[in-house]
């Protein structure tokens, strides 16, 4: 299941996002979207979790939580 994570702190790393979601299950892909010109985070990422129930648990647990002084939003990504 592919999740879209929005409103991330610009200082958050791909590794930190992976660790955050791994607390709820297996993460196969974590892709922090970067600005091509600056190389800095655009504030959103995609996380893929193969187990649907784990992905739903992560979505429920993490949506609208504060991470690094930023309230993140998690939802299903549209393919």
From TrEMBL:
InterPro entries the record matches: Euk_RNA-bind_prot, Nucleotide-bd_a/b_plait_sf, RBD_domain_sf, RRM_dom
User: Which terms are listed as keywords in the entry?
Assistant: RNA-binding
User: Could you cite one Gene Ontology molecular function of this protein?
Assistant: RNA binding
Q: Which SMART domains match?
A: RRM
Q: Which residues form the RRM domain?
A: 1-79
Q: Which domain of life is it from?
A: Bacteria
Q: A Pfam family this protein belongs to?
A: RRM_1
| Name the UniProt record assigns to this protein | RNA recognition motif containing protein
Q: Which organism is it from?
A: Vibrio breoganii
Which taxonomic lineage is given here?
Answer: Bacteria, Pseudomonadati, Pseudomonadota, Gammaproteobacteria, Vibrionales
